[in-house]
Amino acid sequence: MSKSPGEFHLIERLLKRLGSGRRAILGPGDDCAILPANRARQLLTIDSMVEDVHFKLTWGTPEALGARALTVNLSDVAAMGGKPTVCVVNLAVRDGLGMRFFDRMYRGLQSAAARAEVEVVGGNITRAGALAITIALLGEVRGAALRRDAARPGDTIYVTGTVGDAAAGLQILSGQLRARAAARKFLIDRFLRPTARLQAGLRLARIKPAPAAIDLSDGLWQDLGHILERSEVGAEIDVSAVPLSAAYRAAVGDDRALALRGGEDYELLFCLRRAVAAPALTRSLGVRVSRIGRITSSGKAVGKVVSGTVVLVNAPDSVGRSRRPLLAGWDQLRSQPGG
Amino acid sequence: MSKSPGEFHLIERLLKRLGSGRRAILGPGDDCAILPANRARQLLTIDSMVEDVHFKLTWGTPEALGARALTVNLSDVAAMGGKPTVCVVNLAVRDGLGMRFFDRMYRGLQSAAARAEVEVVGGNITRAGALAITIALLGEVRGAALRRDAARPGDTIYVTGTVGDAAAGLQILSGQLRARAAARKFLIDRFLRPTARLQAGLRLARIKPAPAAIDLSDGLWQDLGHILERSEVGAEIDVSAVPLSAAYRAAVGDDRALALRGGEDYELLFCLRRAVAAPALTRSLGVRVSRIGRITSSGKAVGKVVSGTVVLVNAPDSVGRSRRPLLAGWDQLRSQPGG
Q1: Do B48 and A92 touch (CB under 8 A)?
Q2: What sign has the CA pseudo-torsion B228, B231, B233, B237?
Q3: What is the pTM of this model?
Q4: Number of A–B residue contacts, CB under 8 Å
């Protein structure tokens, strides 16, 4: 039942070709890759992109798809302040996709790997009803890691880049939003070709005490919620300070609802014990940084909107869940005219 | 588009519960797991099980499914002579499966992990059209690794356990083969509940020079082919020496065609420079071992059947493929009366 059709062999060869062999003692082609001993602590993450759930093939090029499958993992390593090293790729292949497609997809993946100095050391191919790319990525962290549980009341909250662009791009791709050519291209590109903030993550990891951090994959609202839950704190967000791109403003306007809810920007959200002016952080991290709020003590109030400041309080219910109150907070925000 | 439905949160919590935290500095719940520095060389592998490709839910229990998803990865580490350490789990979830199902599946996965002293340090959940479990497993190897490219002409070829049982079990499950109750149960169990030969792998890794080895996932014929291809050698297999279980004989008879072609037994095939009597190996590896042939020089003859001995020669064609000649050899074998 799991036997490989003929073309699998060719795809497997493609996969083996990926290994460039500098980091690994043994790359693709055996039961496992062999990696050298590692004096640094290691990071390990896994992420998956499934056709018709995370992407449609008509939306972009195979190269962009391959690159994005790695980038979503790179972003997890960036959010821990680590340096990615090696990865393994599981490819679920459906009928109707030719070698040319896989060749191009792998080329995109390989380019993204080379840019991040990551080596593809192994992989696996399986048949499936839909195309899916699942990547497990190893990294290393030499200083303190940027953890979700490190936020403390009084910390200042920052975010890199602009948020909501990928969500707007996705809405354009799926026909829910219209925009002029330049904004359209920018927003779609932000969705199809995200950038993992690896350099910013590495630089943040030099700050003491180590900042709490997370990458924005589920959306600012939900990802901030993860920090609050793990750190057992609350937050006040100045919604008007949440950074929007000119393209987002052109396509969506000043409504930040999509920017707060929409995911897949792969920017970093982080919390500093000692506040630093955003322009100074922008210079030292090499990417635009905006100050958007502060961490507060945990409490019972949930999603209170006080003249543009959202009070996000981590208020676990009796079984320890805190997602529901946060989403309630979000609903309340969305119901405000103009965000 | 990739937003999580409500139940995801519960499944995620289930996943986080898995981390027991002895090996990892930080387990599930952050962007990445944090692992301590490692003085040993490491192994890394990824494997996937997809509904309706590798399994049907009606075939077995959710517990067996969870355990098997890890076992196929453990087997890859066993085949390198390593000790598995930590894993991350990517779960693709389709509609129609309740929390009870996932709870039971994770319990099976967790039991298999505990038995192998493996820690689940992270994971990811995504929606998909079919259930799929993809696991990336790390291991460590302290001595020499058992590589596919280490076979040399003159090596003796051995296999652990019996082969063809899982393939027969799969044929029974899919209604292609009938067997009496005892044989039926044994063969189906061999398919649904395979054992990774971790102890045998570790003990093989103490032999010098390090044996070539591979686990039988694609079937003896094809997996031996991987060793021949990587080592650039040929092989002679004494088909009558390929070990069959009593249940296999009861259900299939003495025809070894299915035993040679059928995969998913997760036994080890290995090659020793200095021949050792099978009973002595059986004692030292803690699992039945059978001697089935020898490695020869590479050459041009393909799949010659000489009175029960199959001459398997690795004969790459002009583009370096060797799978086709091996399969041709297989076809020739199958056409012989009585295997």
Answers
A1: yes
A2: negative
A3: 0.88
A4: 215
User: Using one digit for the tens of pLDDT, what is the confidence trace for B277-330?
Assistant: 999 999 999 999 999 999 998 754 445 444 445 666 544 433 333 333 333 333
Which residues of chain B make contact with A90, given a CB cutoff of 8 A? 46-48, 90, 134, 136
- B328/A contact by beta carbon, under 8 A: no
**Closest chain B C-alpha to A34 CA, distance in angstroms:** 5
Nearest residue on chain B to A53, alpha-carbon basis: B2
Cβ distance A48 to B92 less than 8 Å, yes or no, reads yes
* CATH 3.40.50.450 describes domain A148-334: no
Picking from B30, B52, B54, the nearest residue to A148 by CB comes out as: B30
> B6-141 and B148-334: same fold?
no
Answer yes or no: do A323 and B92 touch at CB < 8 A: no
Encoded tokens for B322: 């060797």
Rounded to an integer, the average pLDDT of A219-226 is: 91
Give B-chain residues touching A43 at CB under 8 angstroms. 32-35
ipTM of the complex: 0.87
Neighbours of B97 (CB within 10 A): 16
Architecture of domain B6-141: 2-Layer Sandwich (3.30)
Which residue from B minimizes the CA distance to A9? B323
* A22 confidence band (pLDDT: 50, 70, 90): confident
Chain B residues close to A138, C-beta within 8 Å: 44, 138
Distance CA B219, CA B214 (A): 11
- Of chain A residues 192-251, which have a CB less than 8 A from chain B? 214-215, 218, 230
A124-153 residues touching B, CB cutoff 8 A = 124, 126-130, 132, 134, 136, 138-139, 141, 145, 147-149
Residues B240 and B109: their CA atoms lie apart, in Å, by 37
Question: What CA–CA distance (Å, rounded) separates B111 from B118?
Answer: 10
Tell me the pLDDT tens digit for each residue of B54-88.
Answer: 999 999 999 999 999 999 999 999 999 999 999 99
Amino acid code (one letter) for A273 = R
Domain ranges of chain A: 6-141, 148-334
